[in-house]
Amino acid sequence: MKIGFVGLGNMGAPMAANLAKAGHRVTGFDVAGTTAEGVQSVPSAAEAAAGADVVITMLPNGDILRAVAAEVLPAMPKGATLIDCSTVDVESARAVAAQAQDAGMLCVDAPVSGGIGGAAGGTLTFMAGGSPAAFDVARPLFDIMGQKAVHCGEAGAGQAAKICNNMILGATMIATCEAFALADKLGLARDKMFDVVSTSSGYSWSMNAYCPAPGIGPQSPADNDYTPGFAAELMLKDLGLSQQAAEAVDADTPMGARALELYRQFVEDEGGKGKDFSAMLPRFTDRGRG
Ligand code: NAD
What we know:
By secondary structure, this protein is α/β, with parallel strands linked by helices. 49% of the residues lie in helices and 14% in strands.
């Protein structure tokens, strides 16, 4: 396949390189001038899209996605497929899908989980929204860049799955961290707390697979001085997207709203920027109720 790849950042560059390594002809463009192994750099998004069977975007937000889509859709051959792997607002994903359809293209919103390690190792999980025909085109590429792809429904369903998952993740990480901080103050040893909770009804991915307490449970960013991992500012972004979506459809999400508030405070006022999102634990242990 001839693939155009727009957005060769921390995630996009290794994803594009994996497609090239698998034998696809990949042309890439990034405004920052970044490149990827095996990918031919071109000077614009439109040039990456020209003659492409598939165009993949991996961009920071919905506004940038909309601008890039407006540039690449007219340059793509009729019947080609646009796959957006960025995490963006559901509304932008649906707007771009509608534009793609009007232009005679297939479109899939396919945000990922798995982070930079998953992108490099080709072990991402894709959650996809779009028509079955569009998903069928994208699936072999998902198989190269990832280990699992779930077709979640029509346009926007991939983004909906992503923000719902990360809303749960943000809230459970905070709950796990505040419980460790309470346990500390009650004199309960952290390893005992882990032994009990990880096999009791309080267990979760945050506790069992990504424990925020250093030296407890499996290896996690806590064991590496909270170097991300999944940065707190990316969690803040995703919690913002989930609240934006909740407001748009009048969904009552008080835990998600509180998680957004706490991560905003942590990132903007409490030095959390650049740290893993599990660094909420020292944030809680360093303070009292006030
Ligand atoms: P990044 O900032 O490293 O990469 C984004 C790239 O897009 C940058 O290189 C930037 O120069 C480029 N870009 C911006 N505007 C552009 C334009 N108009 N045309 C072409 N290129 C443009 O971010 P990232 O970590 O690679 O994340 C990309 C997306 O994946 C985001 O939506 C993020 O939320 C999502 N995501 C990231 C992770 C992670 O762990 N990093 C995990 C899951 C999902």
